Amino acid sequence: MGVVVITRPVQQTDGLVKAVREAGFAPLVFPAIAIGPAPSPERLAAVLARLQTFRMVIFVSPNAIEGALAALPRAWPTSLPVAVMGPGSVAALARHGIAAPDYRVVSPGRQTESEDLRFDSESLYRELDLKALRPGPILLVKGNGGRPWLADQLASAGLVVETVESYARSLPRPTPPELALLEKLVLGQHRAQLIVTSSESLGNILRICQDAFGRDGPDWVRSQRVIVPHARIAENATALGFADVVLSGTGDENIVRALK
User: Fold this and answer.
1) Which of 17, 102, 170, 222 is the most exposed place for a label (fewest CB within 10 A)?
2) Full set of structural domains in the chain with CATH
3) What's the whole-model pTM score?
């Protein structure tokens, strides 16, 4: 039974762990990113209190959605359009009842299922009706850090953009049991497959393994088969020296299908 290391935040692993196990593999949960509350809950609450002053709200990820909606004391206004970058965020909104036909949700791939479609800032930007949105304001809900490309591009196109952080990402501290399980793989030079669902997790897993196991750690990680859901993550993995990068497509079903 092949080992599959799942690097998602611990709050988001249950469904994937079950699917990996049902596919005949042995899941090893080793979070490479930690998700926490908004750095400034007061500012987040103040921004959400004036939601209807915005022409559109853009969420950069499912975590951004969950963090914002957990802090929202009322239902999402049906008149306020929402934009997201991928199917995971569409599903996250739907779990909160924000979906067509009652709500307008803009995302890449609404009219095509092309295998070449990228679910990223650039793809979402091409979907937006900038003329209808000008001059804004547009609210961009995100975590700490991240790419500034979309906010900068919208501002360059003549829109007023406000950003707010609804959650925080950080480098996790692995527990002794988690480290012990991974140590058996690293020091024994056993093969495994890694599921990595964010670019930040790529760097984090290398750093964690460097700190825990010395040079052997990142060398082992880079030599394993790494499954990623997005083209940008695949590009970043290759740039970081990962030798065997598999682009699965989005969704747990596609990720598990890419295992071998």
Assistant:
1) 102
2) 3-33+171-257 (3.40.50.10090), 36-169 (3.40.50.10090)
3) 0.85
